[in-house]
Amino acid sequence: MKAASFEHHEPTTVEEAVSLLESLDEPTILAGGQSLVPMLRFRLARPDTVIDINGIDSLEYLHEEDGYLRIGALARHADVEDTDVIADRYGSFADAAPLIADPQIRNQGTVVGSMAQADPKGDWGSVLIAHDGEVTARGPDGERTIPVDELFLLPYDTSLMDDELLTEARVPAPVEGEGSAYHKLKRKTGDYAMAGVAARLVLDDDGRIEDAGIGMTAVDITNARAADAEAHLEGERPSADLFEEAGELAAEASNPESDEHGDAGYKERMVDVLTQRALGDAAERAGAVKRRVPQ
Amino acid sequence: MTDKREITLTVNGTERTVEAEPRKLLVHAIREDLDLTGTHIGCDTGNCGACTVLKDGEPIKSCLTFAVQADGSEIMTVEGMEDLPEASGELHPLQEGFREEHGLQCGYCTPGMIMSGKALLDENPDPEEGEIREAISGNLCRCTGYQNIVKSIEYAADELNKEPAAADGGTVTAEQRFADDDFDCGVENCCGGPSTETPHVEGADPQFDDVGGDDT
């Protein structure tokens, strides 16, 4: 046996899961398990009880509803790849999904589980930041909404209470003139990001940037927002020069650590480059017309 | 130690029950309880993909899931490949592909590669090379350099696409295929192809006809 013994609970409703969270002693929630199962089998985590939520059918959804893209706690990364509305309207989600781990892991791992895991190298946190997303937590006293900026506290640590279950992640449905993208640097398939940037732009009728969102992966202690870069973009017309300035501001806002893949300076430079690329794709998808450069 | 639980799995079409503690990984249930050792454990960390099986038709890493999570599901392992209709009772075209194209050297990654290949071809019968590479990107091979693995899966795709489609759009079984007397695979001395024992047909070739041949 690899993992230490644990009691396995399989609730079939959210209510049941929440009452188990309340009554059991420090249980762990198991969704896709692609991070948790390795942690259990290496005994990095040794919970006495595991609440397996895979039997809660009501959490299996991924669709647009009431002005939001809603992602239920059991929607897998592969579901994001296979959903038409995402391919058509959510460029950043469509870019990010196939860059996560590998096909087998994407068939099991969940978007919401990745948010709960709060790994600073997770991709979905950055995408949700760029889209001003939020999550729903269900606890004994009912539901509460947590904006993504208030969810991540430290690596692997969130503002969720011990007796709360994350049931949904959602982002506002794109408006007219909106485009988004995700760019990620990694050595090979299956690796976590060395750096990643999600960008979202909304252009007004005049072609100026009305709203901008930029989230960064693996370059701080949590997924992080490049707020100065966002502010610099708003009110301006998209251009290569403007995106270069935004890239520099994003790099300044990042706080990467040196590791075997590259030193901090290199990663900052990569944040700069990835920001420019993601903004370029987002602008194109938002319908910005590329100016013809005179020869 | 927590109590064992009875888990029901439909493995390669047969319903099997396993008594397992919740902490038992699916790959251990498959190998140790069901004695199906075709599914390999390679890296033990979720990286290598040697333990890939199909769960309800989708490839997963059986070392990254507990057996209890698979309760009630359909599992397919490499042992089930030969029982598929496309195998005609012998090797499945994917397995044949790995033999024909030299898609393995040590063979350790092969079961996982075959299951990933199977999942790909089920969804996309005529994949581009890039799509094959993407489909096996969760499977590591330390011998071949992948070129021949890609060729093996291409071989299988070609073979499967050669199969004549049945009236209902499904795949024709071997029995159905050879029940048709007019079927011609094009190979000499085989199912309707040119043969020394082919009955003489008047007019088919003048040199053998009674009229106009050498003996007239």
Automatic annotation (TrEMBL), chain A:
GO molecular function: oxidoreductase activity
Pfam family, one: FAD_binding_5
Keyword terms of this UniProt record: FAD, Flavoprotein, Oxidoreductase
Chain ranges of the FAD-binding PCMH-type domain: 1-176
Record InterPro entries: CO_DH_flav_C (IPR005107), CO_DH_flav_C_dom_sf (IPR036683), Diverse_Substr_Oxidored (IPR051312), FAD-bd_PCMH (IPR016166), FAD-bd_PCMH-like_sf (IPR036318), FAD-bd_PCMH_sub1 (IPR016167), FAD-bd_PCMH_sub2 (IPR016169), Mopterin_DH_FAD-bd (IPR002346)
PROSITE patterns given in the database record: FAD_PCMH (PS51387)
Comp. bias regions, Basic and acidic residues: 258-269
Keyword Flavoprotein: yes
Claim: Ribonucleoprotein is one of the keywords in the record: no
SUPFAM superfamilies recorded: CO dehydrogenase flavoprotein C-terminal domain-like, FAD-binding/transporter-associated domain-like
Gene3D superfamilies (UniProt xref): 3.30.465.10, CO dehydrogenase flavoprotein, C-terminal domain, Uridine Diphospho-n-acetylenolpyruvylglucosamine Reductase, domain 2
SMART domains to which the protein is assigned, alphabetical: CO_deh_flav_C (SM01092)
Region (Disordered): 244-269
PANTHER family xref list: XANTHINE DEHYDROGENASE SUBUNIT C-RELATED
Listed name of the protein: FAD binding domain-containing protein
UniProtKB/TrEMBL annotation, chain B:
Domain of life: Archaea
Coiled-coil portions: none
Keyword set includes GTP-binding: no
Protein name: (2Fe-2S)-binding protein
Molecular-function GO term, any one: oxidoreductase activity
Domain 2Fe-2S ferredoxin-type: 5-81
Annotated organism of origin: Haloplanus ruber
Disordered: annotated segments: 194-216
Biased composition (Acidic residues): 207-216
Alphabetically ordered keywords of this record: 2Fe-2S, Iron, Iron-sulfur, Metal-binding, Oxidoreductase
SUPFAM superfamilies, per database record: 2Fe-2S ferredoxin-like, CO dehydrogenase ISP C-domain like
